[in-house]
Design a protein that fits this description.
- This protein has 2 domains: 274 residues, Glycoside hydrolase/deacetylase (TIM Barrel, Alpha-Beta Barrel); 49 residues, no CATH class.
- By secondary structure, it is α/β, with parallel strands linked by helices.
- Strands 1, 4, 5, 6, 7 and 10 form a 6-stranded parallel β-sheet that branches.
- The protein binds zinc ion.
- Zinc ion (ZN) binds next to strand 5.
Length: 338
C-alpha cells in the first residue's frame, strides 16, 4: 500500500512537471548528481548482500541508456560543479570493487560509453566473502533474524575485534550459507576495466570505518590503498570514498594531506560549488529506487529518488541560510547595531 501511494505521488510529480523543473533548475545551478552503486546482479537470491547494495543487470543497462539520452554523464574525478549546463550532470561511482562490476556492469558501461569510477579496497582483492556484512547476514539468517538491516547497523559501531567476536558467536553451532557470487574483483579484472576507460579510486585498504580507528591507523589505511592502486594499475589514484561515508575533520584533512584531490561521502544531496571537495555527497542507488511497483525501470522513480530529493534538500538549505541571515539581521537591528 505504501509503495502504491509513493508511486501515485511520483506519478503526480512527473506529470505535473515538478520533476522536470527540479532537473532544469539543478542543471542551471551547475550541480552534479553523483550516484553510488555497489553490486550488479541478475539473481538477488544467491547473495548475502543487503538489498540496498544491489541493482539488477537489466535495470543498470536501462539506466545507462536513459542517462546517456537525457543527461550529461561526467566523471566524478575530472568534473567540478558550478558551471551551468544544458543537461543535468550525473556521475556514476561503484564502491567496494565487487567482481560482478566486471562481469555484469562492464558490458553496459562499454555499450553506453558511461564514465565510471570504482573505489577499491586493495586488501580485499579477489576474495570470496571479503566483507564482514555478508558473513554477518549469513549468520543472522540461520537465526531467522527479521531485523537484519538494524543488526548490521549496530555492528558497524563496533571495533573490528568486537565485531569479529559477535559474528563468531552468531556462527557458533550453526552452518551459515556463504555465497560464491559474493566475491571481489581481481587486479586482472581491474586492469581490463582500466583499459576500457574505467577509473579507480581508493576505498581504503580494509574497508574499516575510518572514524572508529586511531588516526595513525586511518592514515595508513588511506595511504597504502592509494599506493597499491597506483602501483598495480599504473594510474593516478586521486579520489577516495570513505567506507560507509564516515569521516571527521581530522580524516578529511588527512585525505587532503595524502594527495587525494577529492573524497566522497554518502549524504543524499547534490554536489554544488559550495560543497567541500572532501565531502562530495552521493545518492546510494539500488533496485528499489529505480523501478516501479511492477519491477520495471522507471525514469520517474530515478528522478524522484535523486533529482527531486536533491533539489528539495538544496532549496531547504538555501531557505535556512536566508532565514538565519534575516534573523541575525533583525537581532542586530534590535540590539541597535548595524
Ligand atoms: Zn564500501
Amino acid at each position: 500500500m505504501r509503495k502504491l501511494l509513493q508511486w501515485a505521488w511520483v506519478h503526480f510529480l512527473y506529470f505535473s512537471g515538478c520533476l522536470w523543473w527540479a532537473r532544469f533548475s539543478l542543471s542551471k545551478a551547475g550541480a552534479i548528481v553523483v550516484l553510488t552503486f555497489h553490486r550488479v546482479l541478475e539473481d538477488q537470491t544467491s547473495t548475502n548482500s543487503q538489498d540496498s547494495l544491489i541493482v539488477r543487470g537489466k535495470t543498470f543497462d536501462q539506466l545507462c541508456a536513459y542517462l546517456k539520452s537525457g543527461y550529461q554523464v561526467v566523471s566524478v574525478e575530472t568534473s567540478t560543479p558550478g558551471e551551468a549546463s544544458k543537461r543535468l550532470k550525473v556521475a556514476c561511482t561503484f564502491d567496494d570493487g565487487w567482481e560482478d562490476n566486471y562481469r555484469n556492469a562492464l558490458p553496459s558501461i562499454r555499450r553506453h560509453k558511461v564514465p565510471v569510477s570504482i573505489f577499491l579496497c586493495p586488501g580485499h582483492m579477489d576474495q570470496a566473502n571479503a566483507f564482514w556484512p555478508e558473513r554477518a547476514v549469513a549468520a543472522l539468517k540461520t537465526w531467522n533474524e527479521a531485523s537484519i538491516d538494524s543488526c548490521i547497523e549496530t555492528l558497524k559501531g563496533f571495533t573490528p575485534e568486537q565485531r569479529q567476536r559477535a559474528i563468531s558467536a552468531l556462527e557458533q553451532g550453526k552452518t551459515p550459507t556463504l555465497m560464491s557470487s559474493d566475491r571481489t574483483m581481481s587486479w586482472q579484472d581491474a586492469s581490463e576495466m582500466a583499459s576500457a576507460g574505467v577509473r579507480f579510486g581508493s576505498h581504503t585498504m580494509m574497508h574499516e570505518i575510518l572514524t572508529n580507528l586511531p588516526l595513525d591507523v586511518a592514515r595508513k589505511e588511506m595511504e597504502e590503498a592509494k599506493e597499491a592502486i597506483e602501483n598495480r594499475l599504473g594510474t593516478t589514484c586521486s579520489a577516495l570514498a570513505y567506507p560507509n561515508g564516515n569521516f571527521s575533520d581530522e580524516i578529511r584533512n588527512l585525505a587532503a594531506e595524502l594527495g587525494y584531490r577529492r573524497a566522497l561521502a554518502t549524504n543524499r544531496e547534490v554536489w554544488t560549488e559550495t560543497s567541500d571537495a572532501f565531502a562530495v555527497p552521493r545518492f546510494n542507488t539500488y533496485e528499489g529506487n529505480l523501478v516501479n511497483p511492477m519491477g520495471s525501470f522507471s525514469p520517474a522513480m530515478f528522478m524522484y529518488t535523486t533529482v527531486w530529493q536533491g533539489w528539495i534538500k538544496l532549496n531547504k538549505a538555501k531557505m535556512n541560510a536566508l532565514f538565519s541571515r534575516r534573523s541575525v539581521k533583525s537581532l542586530r537591528t534590535e540590539s541597535g547595531r548595524p
